[in-house]
Protein backbone atom coordinates (compact mmCIF):
# COMPACT_ATOMS: atom_id res chain seq x y z
CA UNK A 1 0.00 0.00 0.00
CA UNK A 2 1.39 3.39 -0.95
CA UNK A 3 2.61 5.76 1.71
CA UNK A 4 2.05 8.85 -0.41
CA UNK A 5 0.67 11.83 1.43
CA UNK A 6 -2.91 12.70 0.67
CA UNK A 7 -3.98 16.16 -0.14
CA UNK A 8 -6.98 15.23 1.97
CA UNK A 9 -4.68 14.96 4.95
CA UNK A 10 -4.45 18.70 4.68
CA UNK A 11 -8.22 18.92 4.73
CA UNK A 12 -8.64 16.68 7.71
CA UNK A 13 -11.01 14.42 5.83
CA UNK A 14 -8.91 11.54 4.58
CA UNK A 15 -10.53 8.15 4.92
CA UNK A 16 -9.76 4.81 3.39
CA UNK A 17 -7.87 1.73 4.45
CA UNK A 18 -4.29 2.89 5.02
CA UNK A 19 -2.11 5.01 7.20
CA UNK A 20 -4.15 8.19 6.91
CA UNK A 21 -7.27 6.49 8.19
CA UNK A 22 -5.14 5.94 11.27
CA UNK A 23 -4.11 9.59 11.24
CA UNK A 24 -7.70 10.82 11.24
CA UNK A 25 -8.79 8.41 13.98
CA UNK A 26 -5.83 9.38 16.18
CA UNK A 27 -6.14 13.17 15.99
CA UNK A 28 -9.16 14.40 17.99
CA UNK A 29 -10.63 17.72 16.79
CA UNK A 30 -13.38 18.26 19.37
CA UNK A 31 -16.35 20.53 19.23
CA UNK A 32 -18.21 20.90 22.57
CA UNK A 33 -20.56 23.37 24.21
CA UNK A 34 -20.67 27.03 23.24
CA UNK A 35 -18.86 27.87 26.51
CA UNK A 36 -16.05 25.36 26.05
CA UNK A 37 -15.54 26.27 22.38
CA UNK A 38 -15.57 30.02 23.17
CA UNK A 39 -12.80 29.38 25.71
CA UNK A 40 -10.71 27.41 23.24
CA UNK A 41 -11.65 24.12 24.96
CA UNK A 42 -9.09 25.02 27.65
CA UNK A 43 -11.20 23.24 30.27
CA UNK A 44 -8.92 20.57 31.78
CA UNK A 45 -8.50 22.40 35.10
CA UNK A 46 -11.77 24.35 35.13
CA UNK A 47 -14.39 21.62 34.77
CA UNK A 48 -18.02 22.37 35.48
CA UNK A 49 -19.06 22.23 31.82
CA UNK A 50 -20.63 19.45 29.75
CA UNK A 51 -18.13 20.06 26.97
CA UNK A 52 -15.27 19.58 29.43
CA UNK A 53 -16.29 16.03 30.38
CA UNK A 54 -14.80 14.62 27.15
CA UNK A 55 -11.51 16.38 27.96
CA UNK A 56 -11.31 15.63 31.70
CA UNK A 57 -13.81 13.26 33.36
CA UNK A 58 -13.29 15.07 36.68
CA UNK A 59 -15.14 18.05 35.15
CA UNK A 60 -18.46 16.57 36.28
CA UNK A 61 -17.37 16.45 39.94
CA UNK A 62 -17.16 20.28 39.97
CA UNK A 63 -20.91 20.63 39.23
CA UNK A 64 -22.99 21.90 42.16
CA UNK A 65 -26.39 21.33 40.52
CA UNK A 66 -28.06 18.90 38.15
CA UNK A 67 -27.75 20.11 34.59
CA UNK A 68 -28.96 19.31 31.08
CA UNK A 69 -27.94 21.07 27.86
CA UNK A 70 -27.73 20.65 24.10
CA UNK A 71 -25.67 22.52 21.52
CA UNK A 72 -26.58 22.78 17.84
CA UNK A 73 -23.97 24.23 15.49
CA UNK A 74 -23.68 25.62 11.98
CA UNK A 75 -20.35 25.20 10.21
CA UNK A 76 -19.22 26.94 7.03
CA UNK A 77 -16.06 25.62 5.38
CA UNK A 78 -14.10 27.35 2.62
CA UNK A 79 -11.25 25.51 0.91
CA UNK A 80 -8.76 27.38 -1.25
CA UNK A 81 -6.30 25.27 -3.25
CA UNK A 82 -3.59 26.18 -5.71
CA UNK A 83 -2.03 23.58 -7.98
CA UNK A 84 0.28 24.21 -10.94
CA UNK A 85 -0.54 27.90 -10.64
CA UNK A 86 -4.31 27.43 -10.89
CA UNK A 87 -6.41 28.42 -7.88
CA UNK A 88 -9.85 27.06 -7.01
CA UNK A 89 -12.32 27.70 -4.18
CA UNK A 90 -15.05 25.49 -2.73
CA UNK A 91 -17.59 26.49 -0.04
CA UNK A 92 -19.71 24.10 2.01
CA UNK A 93 -22.05 24.62 4.98
CA UNK A 94 -23.58 22.09 7.35
CA UNK A 95 -25.79 21.91 10.43
CA UNK A 96 -25.43 19.41 13.25
CA UNK A 97 -25.34 18.66 16.95
CA UNK A 98 -22.02 19.54 18.59
CA UNK A 99 -22.83 18.48 22.17
CA UNK A 100 -25.60 16.92 24.23
CA UNK A 101 -25.44 15.87 27.84
CA UNK A 102 -26.53 15.94 31.42
CA UNK A 103 -25.16 15.55 34.95
CA UNK A 104 -26.92 14.35 38.11
CA UNK A 105 -25.36 15.44 41.43
CA UNK A 106 -25.94 13.24 44.47
CA UNK A 107 -24.88 14.92 47.72
CA UNK A 108 -23.74 12.80 50.62
CA UNK A 109 -24.51 15.42 53.29
CA UNK A 110 -20.94 15.39 54.55
CA UNK A 111 -18.95 18.59 55.06
CA UNK A 112 -15.62 16.86 54.43
CA UNK A 113 -14.42 13.83 52.55
CA UNK A 114 -16.76 12.56 49.83
CA UNK A 115 -19.20 15.46 49.51
CA UNK A 116 -20.93 14.42 46.29
CA UNK A 117 -21.04 11.81 43.55
CA UNK A 118 -21.99 12.70 39.99
CA UNK A 119 -23.32 10.60 37.14
CA UNK A 120 -23.19 12.08 33.70
CA UNK A 121 -23.67 11.48 30.01
CA UNK A 122 -22.06 13.53 27.28
CA UNK A 123 -22.07 13.41 23.49
CA UNK A 124 -19.38 15.33 21.61
CA UNK A 125 -18.75 15.57 17.90
CA UNK A 126 -15.17 15.00 16.74
CA UNK A 127 -13.43 15.54 13.41
CA UNK A 128 -16.20 17.07 11.34
CA UNK A 129 -15.50 15.69 7.85
CA UNK A 130 -18.01 17.89 6.03
CA UNK A 131 -15.85 19.60 3.43
CA UNK A 132 -15.12 19.73 -0.28
CA UNK A 133 -12.07 20.41 -2.40
CA UNK A 134 -11.61 21.15 -6.07
CA UNK A 135 -8.24 21.46 -7.78
CA UNK A 136 -7.29 21.49 -11.41
CA UNK A 137 -4.70 22.43 -13.98
CA UNK A 138 -4.51 23.13 -17.71
CA UNK A 139 -1.95 22.11 -20.33
CA UNK A 140 -0.67 19.18 -18.25
CA UNK A 141 1.86 17.02 -20.11
CA UNK A 142 0.85 13.78 -18.41
CA UNK A 143 -2.12 11.43 -18.10
CA UNK A 144 -3.71 9.18 -15.55
CA UNK A 145 -3.71 6.47 -18.23
CA UNK A 146 0.09 6.43 -18.15
CA UNK A 147 -0.01 5.64 -14.47
CA UNK A 148 -2.52 2.84 -15.02
CA UNK A 149 -0.13 1.45 -17.62
CA UNK A 150 2.73 1.46 -15.13
CA UNK A 151 0.55 -0.41 -12.63
CA UNK A 152 -0.37 -3.00 -15.27
CA UNK A 153 3.26 -3.52 -16.28
CA UNK A 154 4.23 -4.06 -12.64
CA UNK A 155 1.57 -6.76 -12.27
CA UNK A 156 1.94 -10.47 -13.08
CA UNK A 157 -1.07 -10.28 -15.43
CA UNK A 158 -1.51 -9.98 -19.21
CA UNK A 159 -4.13 -8.00 -21.10
CA UNK A 160 -6.27 -11.09 -21.50
CA UNK A 161 -6.27 -11.52 -17.71
CA UNK A 162 -7.81 -8.05 -17.32
CA UNK A 163 -10.67 -8.70 -19.78
CA UNK A 164 -14.00 -8.23 -18.02
CA UNK A 165 -15.12 -11.69 -19.20
CA UNK A 166 -11.87 -13.44 -18.19
CA UNK A 167 -11.80 -16.56 -16.05
CA UNK A 168 -10.97 -16.10 -13.21
CA UNK A 169 -12.85 -12.85 -12.69
CA UNK A 170 -10.19 -10.08 -12.82
CA UNK A 171 -11.90 -8.28 -9.96
CA UNK A 172 -10.80 -11.17 -7.75
CA UNK A 173 -7.15 -10.04 -8.12
CA UNK A 174 -7.72 -7.39 -5.45
CA UNK A 175 -9.07 -3.85 -5.43
CA UNK A 176 -5.64 -2.35 -6.17
CA UNK A 177 -6.08 -3.48 -9.79
CA UNK A 178 -9.68 -2.38 -10.21
CA UNK A 179 -8.80 1.00 -11.85
CA UNK A 180 -6.47 -0.90 -14.21
CA UNK A 181 -9.32 -3.24 -15.18
CA UNK A 182 -11.56 -0.26 -15.95
CA UNK A 183 -8.81 1.42 -17.97
CA UNK A 184 -8.05 -1.74 -19.97
CA UNK A 185 -11.68 -2.46 -20.82
CA UNK A 186 -12.33 1.15 -21.89
CA UNK A 187 -9.41 1.12 -24.38
CA UNK A 188 -7.16 3.49 -22.46
CA UNK A 189 -4.37 0.91 -22.84
CA UNK A 190 -3.03 -1.52 -25.42
CA UNK A 191 -0.35 -4.23 -25.35
CA UNK A 192 2.63 -5.60 -27.18
CA UNK A 193 2.78 -9.37 -26.88
CA UNK A 194 6.26 -10.21 -25.56
CA UNK A 195 7.64 -12.85 -23.22
CA UNK A 196 7.08 -13.52 -20.42
CA UNK A 197 3.84 -11.48 -20.61
CA UNK A 198 2.32 -8.48 -22.35
CA UNK A 199 3.90 -5.03 -22.23
CA UNK A 200 1.21 -2.38 -21.66
CA UNK A 201 1.28 1.12 -23.13
CA UNK A 202 -1.31 3.93 -23.22
CA UNK A 203 -3.55 4.38 -26.23
CA UNK A 204 -1.36 6.03 -28.90
CA UNK A 205 -2.69 9.59 -28.63
CA UNK A 206 -2.04 9.65 -24.87
CA UNK A 207 1.35 7.95 -25.29
CA UNK A 208 2.58 10.73 -27.56
CA UNK A 209 5.03 13.18 -25.88
CA UNK A 210 3.01 16.09 -27.29
CA UNK A 211 -0.16 15.01 -25.45
CA UNK A 212 -1.71 17.77 -23.32
CA UNK A 213 -4.77 17.70 -21.08
CA UNK A 214 -6.90 19.66 -18.66
CA UNK A 215 -7.30 17.79 -15.38
CA UNK A 216 -9.66 18.28 -12.45
CA UNK A 217 -10.17 16.55 -9.13
CA UNK A 218 -13.28 17.17 -7.02
CA UNK A 219 -13.70 15.55 -3.63
CA UNK A 220 -16.68 15.79 -1.28
CA UNK A 221 -16.61 14.37 2.22
CA UNK A 222 -19.37 14.09 4.82
CA UNK A 223 -19.58 12.59 8.29
CA UNK A 224 -17.91 12.79 11.69
CA UNK A 225 -16.79 10.83 14.73
CA UNK A 226 -19.19 10.84 17.67
CA UNK A 227 -18.04 10.31 21.26
CA UNK A 228 -20.55 9.11 23.87
CA UNK A 229 -19.24 9.21 27.45
CA UNK A 230 -20.73 7.57 30.52
CA UNK A 231 -19.24 9.58 33.35
CA UNK A 232 -18.66 9.11 37.08
CA UNK A 233 -17.32 11.90 39.31
CA UNK A 234 -16.34 12.30 42.95
CA UNK A 235 -15.96 15.54 44.94
CA UNK A 236 -13.56 15.22 47.87
CA UNK A 237 -13.81 18.19 50.26
CA UNK A 238 -14.15 20.68 47.38
CA UNK A 239 -10.39 20.31 46.99
CA UNK A 240 -9.88 17.19 44.93
CA UNK A 241 -12.12 16.05 42.12
CA UNK A 242 -11.89 12.64 40.47
CA UNK A 243 -13.61 11.30 37.36
CA UNK A 244 -13.82 8.39 34.95
CA UNK A 245 -15.40 8.01 31.51
CA UNK A 246 -16.42 4.94 29.61
CA UNK A 247 -16.19 6.29 26.07
CA UNK A 248 -18.00 4.84 23.08
CA UNK A 249 -17.32 6.10 19.56
CA UNK A 250 -19.18 5.93 16.28
CA UNK A 251 -17.49 6.53 12.93
CA UNK A 252 -19.31 7.50 9.74
CA UNK A 253 -17.62 8.98 6.70
CA UNK A 254 -18.57 9.08 3.03
CA UNK A 255 -16.12 10.26 0.39
CA UNK A 256 -17.03 10.93 -3.24
CA UNK A 257 -14.33 11.74 -5.77
CA UNK A 258 -14.38 12.65 -9.44
CA UNK A 259 -11.25 12.82 -11.56
CA UNK A 260 -11.65 14.30 -15.05
CA UNK A 261 -9.16 14.49 -17.88
CA UNK A 262 -9.90 16.21 -21.20
CA UNK A 263 -7.65 15.98 -24.24
CA UNK A 264 -6.56 19.50 -25.26
CA UNK A 265 -3.75 18.45 -27.61
CA UNK A 266 -3.23 20.30 -30.87
CA UNK A 267 -3.49 18.82 -34.35
CA UNK A 268 -4.19 15.16 -34.97
CA UNK A 269 -3.67 14.22 -31.32
CA UNK A 270 -6.74 16.26 -30.46
CA UNK A 271 -8.89 14.22 -32.84
CA UNK A 272 -8.51 10.82 -31.11
CA UNK A 273 -9.04 10.34 -27.40
CA UNK A 274 -11.63 12.78 -25.99
CA UNK A 275 -12.06 12.52 -22.21
CA UNK A 276 -12.16 10.27 -19.18
CA UNK A 277 -14.12 10.65 -15.93
CA UNK A 278 -13.37 8.35 -13.02
CA UNK A 279 -15.54 8.25 -9.92
CA UNK A 280 -14.68 6.75 -6.57
CA UNK A 281 -17.10 6.33 -3.68
CA UNK A 282 -16.25 5.01 -0.24
CA UNK A 283 -18.14 4.73 3.01
CA UNK A 284 -16.38 3.98 6.30
CA UNK A 285 -18.39 2.96 9.34
CA UNK A 286 -17.49 1.50 12.70
CA UNK A 287 -17.35 1.87 16.44
CA UNK A 288 -14.78 2.17 19.19
CA UNK A 289 -14.34 2.22 22.95
CA UNK A 290 -11.89 3.63 25.49
CA UNK A 291 -11.53 4.56 29.15
CA UNK A 292 -10.48 7.95 30.47
CA UNK A 293 -9.41 9.04 33.97
CA UNK A 294 -8.84 12.51 35.33
CA UNK A 295 -8.47 14.75 38.38
CA UNK A 296 -8.73 18.42 39.30
CA UNK A 297 -6.92 19.74 42.36
CA UNK A 298 -7.92 23.08 43.88
CA UNK A 299 -5.29 23.94 46.52
CA UNK A 300 -6.95 27.36 46.89
CA UNK A 301 -9.96 29.20 45.56
CA UNK A 302 -7.79 31.04 43.02
CA UNK A 303 -5.85 28.16 41.50
CA UNK A 304 -6.62 24.78 39.97
CA UNK A 305 -4.55 22.06 38.35
CA UNK A 306 -6.08 19.32 36.21
CA UNK A 307 -4.93 16.33 34.20
CA UNK A 308 -6.48 13.41 32.33
CA UNK A 309 -5.32 10.37 30.43
CA UNK A 310 -7.17 7.94 28.20
CA UNK A 311 -6.45 4.39 27.21
CA UNK A 312 -5.98 3.67 23.51
CA UNK A 313 -9.25 3.78 21.59
CA UNK A 314 -10.03 0.36 20.12
CA UNK A 315 -11.91 0.63 16.80
CA UNK A 316 -13.61 -1.96 14.61
CA UNK A 317 -14.16 -0.55 11.10
CA UNK A 318 -15.59 -1.44 7.69
CA UNK A 319 -14.83 0.19 4.34
CA UNK A 320 -17.20 -0.23 1.39
CA UNK A 321 -16.02 1.20 -1.92
CA UNK A 322 -16.42 1.06 -5.70
CA UNK A 323 -15.27 2.77 -8.91
CA UNK A 324 -17.17 4.02 -11.98
CA UNK A 325 -15.55 5.12 -15.22
CA UNK A 326 -16.68 6.98 -18.35
CA UNK A 327 -14.36 7.18 -21.37
CA UNK A 328 -15.01 8.62 -24.85
CA UNK A 329 -13.05 8.89 -28.11
CA UNK A 330 -13.61 11.32 -30.99
CA UNK A 331 -14.51 8.44 -33.36
CA UNK A 332 -17.72 7.80 -31.41
CA UNK A 333 -16.49 4.94 -29.19
CA UNK A 334 -17.38 5.28 -25.51
CA UNK A 335 -17.52 3.03 -22.45
CA UNK A 336 -19.21 3.29 -19.04
CA UNK A 337 -17.88 0.68 -16.66
CA UNK A 338 -18.31 -0.19 -13.00
CA UNK A 339 -16.58 -2.31 -10.39
CA UNK A 340 -18.29 -4.47 -7.80
CA UNK A 341 -18.50 -3.11 -4.28
CA UNK A 342 -15.44 -3.92 -2.20
CA UNK A 343 -15.75 -4.66 1.52
CA UNK A 344 -12.84 -4.48 3.93
CA UNK A 345 -13.08 -5.08 7.69
CA UNK A 346 -10.24 -4.20 10.02
CA UNK A 347 -9.35 -2.97 13.49
CA UNK A 348 -7.39 0.03 14.64
CA UNK A 349 -5.92 1.09 17.97
CA UNK A 350 -5.64 4.87 18.31
CA UNK A 351 -2.93 6.00 20.78
CA UNK A 352 -3.68 7.24 24.26
CA UNK A 353 -4.19 10.98 24.83
CA UNK A 354 -3.28 13.05 27.84
CA UNK A 355 -4.25 16.57 28.92
CA UNK A 356 -2.66 18.90 31.47
CA UNK A 357 -4.23 22.19 32.47
CA UNK A 358 -3.88 25.15 34.84
CA UNK A 359 -6.53 27.68 35.76
CA UNK A 360 -6.49 30.95 37.69
CA UNK A 361 -9.85 31.87 39.24
CA UNK A 362 -10.71 35.49 40.03
CA UNK A 363 -13.72 37.15 41.58
CA UNK A 364 -15.19 38.05 38.20
CA UNK A 365 -13.62 35.54 35.82
CA UNK A 366 -10.90 33.02 35.04
CA UNK A 367 -7.95 32.26 32.76
CA UNK A 368 -7.02 28.72 31.76
CA UNK A 369 -4.23 27.06 29.78
CA UNK A 370 -4.19 23.46 28.45
CA UNK A 371 -1.76 21.17 26.72
CA UNK A 372 -2.82 17.97 24.96
CA UNK A 373 -0.46 15.35 23.57
CA UNK A 374 -0.81 12.13 21.63
CA UNK A 375 1.94 10.14 19.92
CA UNK A 376 0.40 9.14 16.59
CA UNK A 377 3.48 7.03 15.84
CA UNK A 378 2.12 4.52 18.38
CA UNK A 379 -1.13 3.93 16.46
CA UNK A 380 -1.58 0.37 15.23
CA UNK A 381 -3.72 -1.46 12.68
CA UNK A 382 -4.83 -4.99 13.44
CA UNK A 383 -6.41 -7.72 11.38
CA UNK A 384 -10.01 -8.62 11.99
CA UNK A 385 -9.80 -12.39 12.39
CA UNK A 386 -13.50 -12.97 11.83
CA UNK A 387 -13.84 -11.40 8.39
CA UNK A 388 -14.95 -12.65 5.03
CA UNK A 389 -13.98 -9.80 2.77
CA UNK A 390 -12.23 -9.15 -0.52
CA UNK A 391 -8.87 -8.01 0.85
CA UNK A 392 -6.96 -9.49 3.76
CA UNK A 393 -3.47 -8.56 4.81
CA UNK A 394 -1.35 -8.01 7.84
CA UNK A 395 -0.36 -4.47 8.67
CA UNK A 396 3.33 -4.68 9.45
CA UNK A 397 4.26 -2.29 6.63
CA UNK A 398 1.59 0.28 7.57
CA UNK A 399 2.44 0.11 11.27
CA UNK A 400 6.15 0.46 10.59
CA UNK A 401 5.47 3.37 8.27
CA UNK A 402 3.45 5.20 10.93
CA UNK A 403 6.22 4.62 13.47
CA UNK A 404 8.79 6.12 11.11
CA UNK A 405 6.78 9.07 9.78
CA UNK A 406 4.38 10.19 12.50
CA UNK A 407 5.30 11.78 15.81
CA UNK A 408 3.81 13.44 18.88
CA UNK A 409 0.85 15.66 17.99
CA UNK A 410 0.70 18.74 20.23
CA UNK A 411 -2.19 21.06 21.04
CA UNK A 412 -2.09 24.29 23.03
CA UNK A 413 -5.36 25.81 24.25
CA UNK A 414 -5.92 29.11 26.06
CA UNK A 415 -9.21 30.51 27.36
CA UNK A 416 -10.57 33.43 29.39
CA UNK A 417 -13.93 34.30 30.93
CA UNK A 418 -15.07 37.61 32.45
CA UNK A 419 -18.36 38.50 34.21
CA UNK A 420 -19.00 42.26 33.70
CA UNK A 421 -22.32 41.74 35.51
CA UNK A 422 -23.50 38.76 37.53
CA UNK A 423 -25.65 37.15 34.83
CA UNK A 424 -23.51 37.84 31.72
CA UNK A 425 -20.17 36.26 30.81
CA UNK A 426 -17.82 37.30 28.02
CA UNK A 427 -15.39 34.65 26.71
CA UNK A 428 -12.45 34.28 24.36
CA UNK A 429 -10.11 31.47 23.41
CA UNK A 430 -7.31 30.33 21.13
CA UNK A 431 -6.08 26.92 19.97
CA UNK A 432 -2.97 25.88 18.09
CA UNK A 433 -2.06 22.39 16.95
CA UNK A 434 0.65 20.91 14.80
CA UNK A 435 0.17 17.95 12.50
CA UNK A 436 1.88 15.05 14.20
CA UNK A 437 3.63 14.41 10.87
CA UNK A 438 7.43 14.61 10.72
CA UNK A 439 8.68 17.65 8.81
CA UNK A 440 10.90 15.58 6.56
CA UNK A 441 7.90 13.62 5.27
CA UNK A 442 7.89 14.83 1.65
CA UNK A 443 8.14 18.43 2.95
CA UNK A 444 4.63 18.21 4.36
CA UNK A 445 3.67 21.21 6.50
CA UNK A 446 0.34 21.44 8.32
CA UNK A 447 -0.66 23.91 11.03
CA UNK A 448 -4.03 24.67 12.65
CA UNK A 449 -5.11 27.93 14.29
CA UNK A 450 -8.48 28.61 15.92
CA UNK A 451 -9.74 31.79 17.59
CA UNK A 452 -13.08 32.03 19.36
CA UNK A 453 -15.40 34.47 21.11
CA UNK A 454 -18.57 33.93 23.11
CA UNK A 455 -21.15 35.27 25.49
CA UNK A 456 -23.20 33.56 28.19
CA UNK A 457 -26.44 34.65 29.83
CA UNK A 458 -28.36 33.19 32.77
CA UNK A 459 -32.08 33.59 33.31
CA UNK A 460 -34.63 32.80 35.97
CA UNK A 461 -35.53 29.19 36.76
CA UNK A 462 -31.97 27.93 36.13
CA UNK A 463 -32.10 28.40 32.36
CA UNK A 464 -29.10 29.71 30.48
CA UNK A 465 -28.00 30.46 26.93
CA UNK A 466 -24.42 30.43 25.67
CA UNK A 467 -23.35 31.61 22.23
CA UNK A 468 -19.99 31.19 20.52
CA UNK A 469 -18.30 31.74 17.19
CA UNK A 470 -15.03 30.05 16.29
CA UNK A 471 -12.90 30.72 13.22
CA UNK A 472 -10.13 28.32 12.25
CA UNK A 473 -7.48 28.18 9.55
CA UNK A 474 -5.56 25.09 8.47
CA UNK A 475 -2.56 25.99 6.30
CA UNK A 476 -1.01 23.15 4.36
CA UNK A 477 1.62 22.45 1.77
CA UNK A 478 1.37 18.86 0.58
CA UNK A 479 2.24 16.81 -2.50
CA UNK A 480 -0.92 16.34 -4.51
CA UNK A 481 -0.98 12.56 -4.33
CA UNK A 482 -3.70 10.11 -3.39
CA UNK A 483 -3.23 6.58 -2.12
CA UNK A 484 -5.99 4.29 -3.29
CA UNK A 485 -9.05 6.23 -4.53
CA UNK A 486 -7.13 7.49 -7.60
CA UNK A 487 -4.42 4.83 -7.36
CA UNK A 488 -1.40 6.96 -6.47
CA UNK A 489 -1.98 9.44 -9.28
CA UNK A 490 -3.91 12.69 -9.29
CA UNK A 491 -3.54 15.68 -11.56
CA UNK A 492 -0.46 14.74 -13.50
CA UNK A 493 2.84 15.29 -11.73
CA UNK A 494 3.52 15.04 -7.98
CA UNK A 495 3.77 18.81 -7.64
CA UNK A 496 2.99 20.45 -4.34
CA UNK A 497 -0.42 21.96 -3.69
CA UNK A 498 -1.02 24.84 -1.32
CA UNK A 499 -4.28 24.31 0.54
CA UNK A 500 -5.90 26.69 3.01
CA UNK A 501 -9.02 25.48 4.74
CA UNK A 502 -10.91 28.00 6.82
CA UNK A 503 -14.09 27.38 8.70
CA UNK A 504 -16.45 29.43 10.80
CA UNK A 505 -18.56 27.67 13.39
CA UNK A 506 -21.48 29.20 15.24
CA UNK A 507 -22.78 27.37 18.32
CA UNK A 508 -25.66 27.93 20.74
CA UNK A 509 -26.03 26.01 24.01
CA UNK A 510 -29.46 25.82 25.62
CA UNK A 511 -29.17 24.64 29.21
CA UNK A 512 -31.07 24.12 32.46
CA UNK A 513 -29.69 23.85 35.99
CA UNK A 514 -31.97 22.41 38.61
Q: Would you mind describing this structure in some detail?
A:
With 514 residues, the chain is mainly beta. The protein has two domains: 7-127 and 222-513, Outer membrane protein transport protein (OMPP1/FadL/TodX) (Porin); 144-210, no CATH class. The chain contains eight helices and 21 strands. The protein has helices at 7-11, 19-26, 34-38, 144-153, 159-162, 178-185, 204-207, 396-405, and strands spanning 67-83, 86-107, 114-126, 131-140, 189-192, 199-202, 213-236, 240-263, 273-300, 303-310, 313-329, 334-338, 342-350, 354-362, 365-375, 380-383, 408-421, 424-434, 445-458, 463-479, 496-513. It has a 14-stranded antiparallel β-barrel with strand order 1-2-3-7-8-9-10-14-15-17-18-19-20-21. Strands 5-6 form a two-stranded antiparallel ribbon. A hairpin with a 2-residue loop joins strand 14 (354-362) and strand 15. The radius of gyration is 26 Å and the shape is elongated. The model is unreliable at 1-17, 387-392 and 479-495 (pLDDT under 50).
Amino acid sequence: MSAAVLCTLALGQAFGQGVFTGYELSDFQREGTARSVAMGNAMTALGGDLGAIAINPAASAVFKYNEFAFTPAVTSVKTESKYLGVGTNVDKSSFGLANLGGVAVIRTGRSNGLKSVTFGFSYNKHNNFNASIKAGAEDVDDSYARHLTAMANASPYSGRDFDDNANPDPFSYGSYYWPVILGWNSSLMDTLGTAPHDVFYPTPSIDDPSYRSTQLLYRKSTGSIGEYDLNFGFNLSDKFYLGMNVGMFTVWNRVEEKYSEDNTSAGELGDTFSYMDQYYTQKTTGSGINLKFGFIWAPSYNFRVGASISTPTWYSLTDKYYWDSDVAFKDGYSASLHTPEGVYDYRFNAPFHYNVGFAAIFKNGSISVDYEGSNIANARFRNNKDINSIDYSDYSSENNWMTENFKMANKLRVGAEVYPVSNVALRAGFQYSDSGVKKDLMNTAIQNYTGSLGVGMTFGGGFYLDLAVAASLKKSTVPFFDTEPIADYVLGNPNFAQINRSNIKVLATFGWRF
